[in-house]
Design goal:
Blueprint (H helix, E strand, L loop, with lengths): L1 H9 L25 H10 L2 H31 L3 H38 L3 H36 L4 H14 L3 H16 L4 H23 L9 H24 L14 H33 L3 H37 L3 H28 L2 H4 L6 H14 L3 H16 L4 H25 L3 H23 L2 H4 L5
Amino acid sequence: MESKALAATLTLDAAPGDDDAPVPARPLAKPAQPNTEATRAAILAGPILPTLVKLALPTMVVLLAQTAVNIAEAYYVGYLGTDALAGVAMVFPVFMLMTMMSNGGIGSGVAASVARAVGAGRKDDADALVFHAIIIAIVFGAAFMLGTIRGGPMLYRALGGHSAALDAALQYSNYLFAGAIPVWIVNLQAAALRGAGNVKVPAMVTLIGALVLIPASPLLIFGFGPVPRLGIQGAGIAFAVYYCGAMLFLLRYMASGRTDLTFKFVPLQGRLFLDILKVGIPTAVNAVLSNLTVILVTAAVGLFGTTALAAYGIASRLDYVMIPILFGLSTAVLTMVGVNIGAGQTARARRIAWISGAAGLVLTGSIGLVVAIVPSLWLHLFSHDPEVQRLGATYLRIVAPAYAALGFSFVVSFATQGAGHVFWPFIGSVIRILFAAGLGWIAVGYFGAGMTTLASMVAASMVAYAAICLIAMNSRKVWALDKT
């Protein structure tokens, strides 16, 4: 039992769906963390909820700081008018797609590969994976940068952009995605550090980024003293400059030898690319489906006009605020479920999933209930335009109560992935896109439905996803119920 637990702990960063058997544990060059034994003991036998909170809180705090930057930026852009808000609303889902793919998609593959190499005592492979991750980051970053520059006009027109709103979207997008390669490098290097057990440095970089960007964005947007007024371009420039600085810091830090991982140039090896991508690609596909849902709904809203786009942009941004809260909770759940599954404690793993799913439901459901009752608490942060307020309130009164379903399904999907099963989360993502984007688009495009119907489709998609996750929670295959 103890050997299984140890193997599970050394591979707890393995991404969802990685069905490889854990690599037998070998002595590490350096201890990963001094409290590893205590943490493993709490995961295997301690009280579930306090252990969950202890594991989730650091990640949640860091991700919330990152989210605060996005909220602050939207707040500043709101002063530039409705066209600027609509422009940001069109770009934001694409930006979030890149962020989720680099952090939670391909980043999961990097963290898993590094964790396995470190756990097996393969120091040379762990170091080599850092360089391979940078190559992958350059490729994906360049794809996003070139794709948005060349395809941006067509994409944003398809999302309903025209005239001043389209111009704002293109200006913001071009400067924002000019920093796409540094973003990918920073996020994949942070994932590598987390895979090696170093969560302090990535957290520090993120928190410093929040402290830099929150004042830097308005400085460049509105200008001050010798700094010229750059408008919406300033928001994108501030973001790109920060990530360039963060990239240089992380590369220098990892080349200095002060960490368990060392950045150095090595011959490229296909097996190391495969080791990263076999986990990262399937996880990234789920991120694509989630963001494709938002992009397609944005396109449907675009049929209502610029004001509706602005309203949807600021209202649906609250949907994204739920993600860092749930992601911090869910990564802890994945770890706890994975360690207990590895230790043969299937019944406890399932109990962790139920308790964690309930925690996600209560957490996001409470936020959703408050915002549904008083939507102006959120909407007034970004705009005081009466029509923007009306349409945004319509969306939030319908969708925000469904955040409870989103919280439950998001957490449970990570729990099933921790148990080594990705089928049900994938089915849930497909069902969600069919409801929100498919039925929503048909209702708006062919039957002339308004914001109320579209918001109802979005809410229904969250409830349907939760229903799929309930099936997963009662699946005999996922939880080996025949054996418990």
